[in-house]
Amino acid sequence: MPKSRIRKKADFTPPPATKQATSIKLTNRSWVAPVMLALFAIGLVWIVVFYVTDGSLPIESLANWNIVVGFGFIAGGFGVSTQWK
User: Fold this and answer.
1) Which one of 28, 53, 66, 76 has the lowest number of neighbouring Cβ atoms within 10 Å?
2) CA 35 to CA 77: how far, in whole Å?
3) What is the distance between the alpha carbons of residues 15 and 85, in angstroms, rounded to a whole number?
4) How would residue 21 be classed by pLDDT, with cut points 50, 70 and 90?
């Protein structure tokens, strides 16, 4: 059986580079990390204070809803974290 010929492919040559000036919009998001960490910390401290004081602090009239408030702060921290770039 005859051997098939091997076809040589042409080497790839990239197109000439044309430098285009693209404007990148950089926004100042330096506030995101501190706000996110602050909300995480407030939520954690809120829940810990509630458990350590047997429900008399931070707001006694909320009773067990204080846990929801603490997790609300933590959820807010996660919401703010979506703005981080």
Assistant:
1) 28
2) 7
3) 33
4) low
68-81 pLDDT tens trace: 999 999 999 999 99
Give the integer Cα–Cα distance in Å for 8 and 53: 80
DSSP secondary structure string, 13-72?
-PPPP------------TTHHHHHHHHHHHHHHHHHHHHHTTT-SS-GGGTTHHHHHHHH
Q: How far apart are CA 28 and CA 35, in angstroms?
A: 14
Q: What angle do CA 55, 58, 59 make, to 5 degrees?
A: 80
